[in-house]
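Hi D.,

Good news: the full-assembly prediction came through. Inputs first.
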Amino acid sequence: MKVKFMNYINNLFRVIFGRKKLIRLGVYGPVNAGKTTLANRICKDWIGEELGTVSKIPHETREIQVKEKVKIRSNSKELDFNIIDTPGIATKIDYEDFMKFKLNEKESKQRAKEATKGVIEAIKWLENVDAVLVVLDSTQNPYNQVNITIIGNLAARNIPVLIIGNKVDLKKANIKKIKNAFPQYTTVGISAEKGKNMEDFYEALFELIK
Amino acid sequence: MLTLQFIPYSEVKDLSSLGRIRKLLNMAKENKIVLLEGRLSKEEEAELIKTTMEEINASFKGIELAVVNPSENENDVFSKLRSTLASTLLGNRQGFTIIGPATIIKSIKRDPNKLQLLMKDAASRRSSKKHKRRR
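Then the structure:
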């Protein structure tokens, strides 16, 4: 209730005094799409330090991570962002899946417990963002209910969305499929890990915010 | 034995969002695959995921979900207007929702024209049950 009230006040100020200078940029998406890799890439590009750890084990990010006041420049424009990296959203979490990555049963159960909390937090934080990067793995089928639910919820809240097709450096990547799945949104293909196509990404980000 | 339960829209139309989510989730937890006439709203989808996460434990591993909205891919203004009007008059009756437990459904594969439910094979379901019993 308090959060909703504060959002209302923030939005009111934005309407009265024009666009606020600090943009809360959420990084959302399904598990293992490369959200933290992208958040790290952005932070490394502009402040020279990373935001979180990356791993092949699913649900590595299990808490919201925020890097405040990241100044980004593109085409002689400059904006300040709070980069909000969120845990991957999923509809199921099975601790036995973590055991395939050589975690023991206790560690796996703990990770699963934290991961469920992370998903809940990520959904709650939808109330606290001004714009969102939806990061999808471009080697995977984009017609996934988690993707549809995230994007649908952002649309219902009138939050601007930029879709990132990550991992375009991989052979199986198919950006066209993502564009076809969500034709009403701008999609940029990048490789956050390799830093490929980041200029286009920053341009699209500024287009989104303007 | 697998159970597929159909729920007509009339059975959920008077329920609150929370009631609708509870009904679907309870059935999934009873190891049923549910086919609901009509669809959940976007907010209800997010709430369903949140509630599912709160209830995950050793025996309930979550759900597989697909909400199909036939008007989603309509791009022309007239079609959009028609589906908005239909939704206003009839509620979210258009389309359908499939939900089932993740211990039974491996994944739901969808593309614009096709939806496939991939089930876990009996052996893997049995081994998961054995694992549970050992605990």
